[in-house]
Each structure stands twice: as structure tokens, then as C-alpha cells.
Design goal:
Blueprint lengths: L1 H11 L6 H8 L3 H4 L6 H13 L10 H17 L4 H10 L4 H16 L4 H30 L16 H18 L6
Helix pairs in contact: 1-4, 4-6, 5-7, 5-8, 5-9, 6-8, 7-8, 8-9
Length: about 190
């Protein structure tokens, strides 16, 4: 069921991933889906977990390396599915994704390892997650516009000549530098 829902997401996007369409594809009544999922949000949380599975690979590195790797894995996982960032963002905001919760815990641990006070390590982790989700949602939107042939008034591609990977890495580095600045001063 989650596999079919993920396929529908990839084929049609989040706007057309409905319980009715999923039921039709599975050849069951819509009511039958509610035997497995209490509501659409629970189903979307399961799809978010499926999308995020590759991002849960263990990373053994210092705190900076862990944040960098987790951000890269998260971005790659989101980009691998149509509207992946939008779906995971909604599931994360609703607290419906256990995989997102696990990634947040790993980022919180990395921030704490950097010396960020316990009261702020979770906030630092959320800031990192919000950056990756926002950047990737923007990147997916731009890719969709570019694929549709949209052009800016000067004839440039919506994506322009710059590399989104380079822009993403710059933002991650900026966040890591900010986290490093929160470290207690050592004598």
C-alpha cells in the first residue's frame, strides 16, 4: 500500500495523491484503506518514512561531518521523489514521520557534540532540517518550472547557470559555522 502510494506520488505529485485514487489503483474501496491508516495524514507519514529511509544510513564522523552527511542524505532522499520535500515537510510539521524524528534526534546529538547547550541543540537541529526542507522544496519547484520550459524574462533558465549542489553546500556550511560559533569559549 505504501509502495503504491509512493508510486502515485512520483507519477502524479502530492496534490493528486488521494485516498480515492490509491483505493482505485489497489482495486479496493476507499473505506478499506482506513483499516490500515486512520487518515490521509497517517498514510502520508508512512510515505514520508519510505522516502526518508535512505537518509537514515549511519554516519560515523565528527559533528560537522555528521551534519554535512545527514543534510546531503536528506536532500538526496527528498529529490528522489516528486514533491518529496513538500510531503516530508508536511509530515514533519504534523509529527507524522518517525524517520524525520530520528533524523532530528541525530542532528540534535551532533549539535550537542558541537557544544551547543542542551536547551538549544534541538533548536539548532530544527533549523538545519528547516533549511534542507526549504531549500529542496525550492529546488524541486524550480526543476518543475524548468522542465515545463518556463523562462525568466531575460531568457535564462529558472535554475540559472549556478549549481544547486554548490548553493546547498554553502548553506549547510553557513549553518555549521553558526553552530560552531555557539561553542563555549575554551581557555
Amino acid at each position: 500500500m505504501v509502495d503504491k502510494a509512493t508510486q502515485l506520488l512520483d507519477d502524479y505529485g502530492i496534490a493528486d495523491l488521494t485516498m480515492r485514487r490509491l483505493a482505485r489503483e489497489l482495486n479496493v474501496t476507499p473505506g478499506a484503506l482506513y483499516w490500515h491508516f486512520a487518515d490521509k495524514q497517517e498514510l502520508l507519514g508512512a510515505v514520508a518514512d519510505r522516502i526518508l529511509t535512505p537518509a537514515l544510513a549511519e554516519v560515523v564522523a565528527d559533528w560537522q561531518g555528521r551534519i554535512t552527511a545527514i543534510c546531503g542524505q536528506l536532500r538526496d532522499a527528498l529529490l528522489s521523489h516528486t514533491d518529496g520535500a513538500e510531503l516530508v515537510s508536511a509530515s514533519f510539521a504534523a509529527g507524522r514521520s518517525t524517520a524525520a524524528t530520528e533524523l532530528l534526534a541525530r542532528l540534535t546529538d551532533a549539535a550537542a557534540s558541537a557544544g551547543v547547550a542542551p536547551a538549544h541543540a534541538g533548536l539548532a537541529a530544527r533549523t538545519v532540517v528547516y533549511y534542507v526542507l526549504g531549500f529542496t522544496a525550492d529546488e524541486q519547484s524550480r526543476l518543475q518550472w524548468d522542465a515545463a520550459g518556463a523562462a525568466l524574462s531575460d531568457g535564462q533558465s529558472v535554475l540559472g547557470d549556478d549549481d544547486p549542489g554548490v548553493r546547498f553546500a554553502f548553506g549547510v556550511r553557513l549553518l555549521i559555522d553558526g553552530i560552531a560559533a555557539r561553542q563555549p569559549q575554551r581557555l
